[in-house]
Amino acid sequence: MSENFSAFLYLTAAVFFILALRGLSSAKTSTKGNVFGMIGMGIAIIAAFAMPKVSSYALTITGIIVGGVIGAFVAKKIEMTALPQLVAAFHSLVGLAAVLVAAGAMSAPVSFKIGTLEHIMHGSLVEIGLGTAIGAITFTGSVVAFLKLQGLIGSKPMMLPNRHLINVSLGALILFALLLFVFTEGHFFFWVLALASFALGLLMILPVGGADMPVIVSMLNSYSGWAASGIGFTLNNTLLIVTGALVGASGAILSYIMCKAMNRSIISVIVGGFGSSDTSADQSSAANEQRPVKQGSPEDAAFVMKNCSSLVIVPGYGMAVAQAQHALREMCNILQNNGVKVRYAIHPVAGRMPGHMNVLLAEANVPYDDVLELEDINRDFPSTDVAFVIGANDVTNPAAKNNPQSPIYGMPILEVEQAKTVFFVKRSMAAGYAGIENELFFRDNTMMLFGDAKKVTEEIVKALES
Fold first, then answer.
1. What pLDDT does residue 433 have?
2. Of the listed 278, 369, 380, 394, which one is catalytic?
3. What is the mean pLDDT of residues 202-210?
4. Which of 145, 273, 284, 319 is the most exposed place for a label (fewest CB within 10 A)?
């Protein structure tokens, strides 16, 4: 097969990847988007095999089989609640791959057709250096994000003394090492560049608090795209350059949109925990723990819901952990059959990554038209009889509006406190992922339903059916 025909196949694959991104932008077309993505990847693999520069088909096929088996196993076993950390783990692999490919290109430039040892083209040295820096930051940043999302380390911001000065110093060291590497081709400067970038990725994500983690996952997605694009330049692979740029650009745009939705500065998220205050959060939690809350039962909730005319469900990570979406759908079916107007309210950063709640509700076959975004539902809460919050802590916390000392102050929330009655399903009075107490618990119109979200919802269903 000629290189021109291979280039045509790569272009066709790129078009399918663009269609995949377009399809994945909406829950209604997400299945079609996935199909387009699979077709594009299939075409890309065929094109890669047809390239005359492929020297070992056996090694390539072995890699595809091993990777495919591991990917299929992980996809089969992974829980829906663990998708965010899985995405973070995949991002780390992309980052590490960029560093390894760059190291390989530097050590064997003839194989990559970028020159000879100690005579690598300057343009290629720039590509190798930039790809290494972005890949290394993506790798360690994604590892920290994985550890936080998996609960292996605390979700609270880890504030190191003089962290901004350290980060700026590391940034300057990376730039200095990059320039020396490009002009001297010294391997020592390459590894200084790599190690400083590894350290910067680590220190950038450690101070990020739980409330900002969905944005960080999106941003790491963008970094991994740019790292993949860098690999594409090193490998002289047009498709990798294009798809990497698509992922990088889409991730950056999504990060910006999420920051805007949270009233956050994207720069403050990037530098990590800028402007947050652990002390105020701890003091707030300590004060609230002394205040009483109203506690109800599933039977109480069922009675009120059965006699209301409108209900808004607010799902969160608690619903995801308990896998309560199917029981929730059953509860809503009963209420809708009794004439209750039921809708679902989704916050842009509910869960641990963008679209997390939409995926879970789609799994339970919740109609897309019943799922509303924050800006579409907030104005309806004052006329809503019941708000049923199922594990959505930080995104319903009124402190975001009325407590300037709160770490989440300024973040738009679902204003459930304006509903006539609020039922809040939660295992305990423990603080949310952002590490702060929810003022909503102590409002006069709030009734706490303590317990596992799935079990509580199933008990409400039984009470509705009796």
1. 63
2. 394
3. 80
4. 284
